[in-house]
Amino acid sequence: MHKSFTLNRTDNIELNLYQYGEENCDKGHSFGPAVRQHYLFHYVISGTGVLHSEYGSFPVVAGEGFLIHPHDVTTYCADKRDPWHYMWLEVDGLIAGKIFEECHLSRQFPIYRPNQQDDNADALGYLRQIVAQGDEHRLKVLGLSYLFFSALIGNRLQGTAAHPDDKAQHLRKAVKQIENRYHEHLTIESLAAYCNINRSYLCRLFKNAYGIGPRSICLIFA
């Protein structure tokens, strides 16, 4: 399924919405390399995939999103076994960059992660309404876009500011905690809470840095 709508540029200098849509991708489907002229944000409803840019490769799972900045060369690919189903918005304007900053997104850290998956229902609801409007209700779509981004900001994962050095800081903090408390019943959930990040993000950090998960690191120290 593919659904896409394009709007002509409006006089709203704060936030312009250029296109939006939805796609349930086939296994292994990819798009790119390509360059966008505006900010392009995808929200993943189900499945998984990977975003590739000059700053790295970034796995994305359901409930997360990814941002493509203007003029960047990117490719994004659906997983070969569990392809993603996503919705997207393409925007620009005076406050667009600030919106994504407040979502803790940057070129170096383009993945949106929610603080609580269950609390993302509002954001997804607004996005579904946007796509359901088609291209006939421009003002309503723009209003829903503000509500969508507000919901994203309100439920962004705390402690994941968009700087690559934070990844190393989270890893150092986690490893130090394992060193100090390996003899206790240390769970992945408690370790993630100690680092102020979620479980899946902690596991991804360990996999990318060490090739194994935090549970395996705990066993090494034990």
Automatic annotation (TrEMBL):
- Domain named HTH araC/xylS-type is located at 172-217
- Record keywords: Transcription included? yes
Q: Has keyword DNA-binding?
A: yes
* PANTHER family from the UniProt entry: ARAC FAMILY TRANSCRIPTIONAL REGULATOR, HTH-TYPE TRANSCRIPTIONAL ACTIVATOR RHAS-RELATED
* A molecular-function term among this protein's GO annotations: sequence-specific DNA binding
Which residue ranges traverse the bilayer?
A: none
Q: What is the lineage of its organism?
A: Bacteria, Pseudomonadati, Pseudomonadota, Gammaproteobacteria, Enterobacterales
* Annotated source species: Serratia plymuthica
Q: What is this protein called?
A: Adenosine deaminase
- What are the alphabetically sorted keywords of the record? DNA-binding, Transcription, Transcription regulation
